[in-house]
From TrEMBL:
Record Gene3D superfamilies: DNA-3-methyladenine glycosylase AlkA, N-terminal domain (3.30.310.20), Helix-hairpin-Helix base-excision DNA repair enzymes (C-terminal) (1.10.1670.10), Hypothetical protein, domain 2 (1.10.340.30)
EC number: 3.2.2.21
Organism whose genome encodes this protein: Paludibacterium paludis
GO cellular component: cytoplasm; protein-DNA complex
This protein's name: DNA-3-methyladenine glycosylase II
GO biological process: base-excision repair, AP site formation; DNA alkylation repair
């Protein structure tokens, strides 16, 4: 067993509840255990089953990683980078809020939700596969699909939690297993293609995480059958914390914009895209505010 720990200072008013709500999506808690002040998450680390722990206190977060191996190259600095990204501490929300506070439509919403950050997944691979699972279905249906995938992979940490699978785990699942887990033929094929590309080193998600090359990532991802602009922009948001993806195709974003504008009908994708364009480089953060105004689960 290998254990690493670090401690993070949190800004005044940090909204730990938003982070915990994101990881509380699955009520059956196969791979995440969430309390009002803590998170335990099963994941793969360098191929080994691991458990990430985050405990929130007054102004600080204590972060730990327990890996089922005696040898690992991870250091506390790498764990700290991961935790800072997951908690949204790399997001310059202060600049965003300062620029939006006087906006006639968005300003009141942003100030009512001041301090909102976008929770980020524990890996870009998890964010990308979650985006694929969430295509054109409800959050509840996507959570169920995710749960069945985790169960099918069957990777368990010594502490008891199942781990979110990595690319090699999914490559080992055949099409029948993915279909039995509830994946459509199209989504199963996309999941297997993504995983194969990662395993073969042709989709360097971990390298991108160090310094995201947005346009290269967009081009490489959109070349994969089954991945379109929404999936790419959602992955950039949840995988990298990149806040300028335009999520105008998202139904919940359009519904939130309808409410914000007091419009009789939900705006179309083009109208939503044009409205979001004025908020670049914060378009995805605006989308997160529209999500959060409707439901912590959707956010």
């Amino acid at each position: 067993m290998n254990r690493i720990h670090c401690s993070l200072d949190l800004p005044t008013g940090f909204r730990s509840g938003d982070i915990l709500a994101f990881h509380r999506r699955d009520a059956l808690a196969l791979s995440e255990k969430v309390t009002p002040v803590s998170l335990r998450k099963g994941l793969r680390w360098e191929g080994h089953p691991a458990c990430l722990s985050i405990d929130f206190g007054e102004g600080r977060a204590q972060v730990g990683l327990s890996i089922d191996t005696e040898s690992s190259n991870i250091g506390a600095d790498r764990l700290e980078r991961l935790a800072r990204c997951m908690l949204g501490l790399t997001q310059d929300i202060e600049a965003f809020e300062a620029g939006c506070r006087d906006h006639p439509q968005l300003g009141r919403l942003v100030m009512a939700q001041a301090g909102l950050r976008v929770p980020v997944a524990a890996s870009v691979f998890e964010a990308l596969t979650w985006a694929v699972m969430g295509q054109q279905i409800s959050v509840a249906a996507a959570v169920s699909l995710r749960r069945k995938l985790i169960a099918a992979a069957g990777v368990r940490h010594s502490g008891g939690l199942l781990c979110y699978p990595d690319a090699s785990d999914i490559v080992r699942l055949d099409d029948a297993s993915l279909r039995q887990a509830g994946f459509s033929a199209t989504k199963a094929a996309t999941m297997r293609t993504i995983s194969t590309l990662v395993v073969e080193g042709r989709l360097p998600l971990d390298d991108w995480a160090l310094s995201v090359p947005v346009e290269e990532a967009r081009q490489r991802l959109e070349a994969i059958r089954g991945i379109g602009p929404w999936t790419v922009n959602y992955t950039l948001l949840r995988g990298f914390g990149w806040l300028d993806g335009s999520l105008h195709g998202d139904v919940a974003v359009r519904r939130g914009l309808q409410t914000l504008l007091g419009a009789p009908e939900k705006p179309g994708e083009r109208e939503t895209r044009d409205w979001l364009a004025a908020f670049s480089p914060w378009r995805a953060l605006v989308a997160a505010h529209l999500w959060a105004a409707q439901s912590a689960t959707a956010y």
